[in-house]
Amino acid sequence: MTALLLVHDFPPMGGGIARLHGELTRRYPRGELIVSTPQDRDAAEVDAQFNGVVDRLPPRPPAPRALRVLRQREARGLPRALGV
Fold this sequence. Notes:
Layout: E1 3-6, H1 16-27, E2 33-38, H2 43-47, E3 53-57, H3 65-76, H4 78-81
Parallel strand pairs: 1-2, 2-3
């Protein structure tokens, strides 16, 4: 079963939460986790060290609740779109 991790703080971003998310991703079995997180200019080097798919999205400004719900629905379709 594939899990989806939606996070804002993810390496190479600094900070404790980003590090926690990175360590969780490193320890997940290969191919069983998809991470969806904002783009970062240094992401290519960092993403190569993770076992799963890291989906980088363009950063977006804070959204009203209705838009957040719509994005959650889009995220649910991500594994299917990636063929997982």
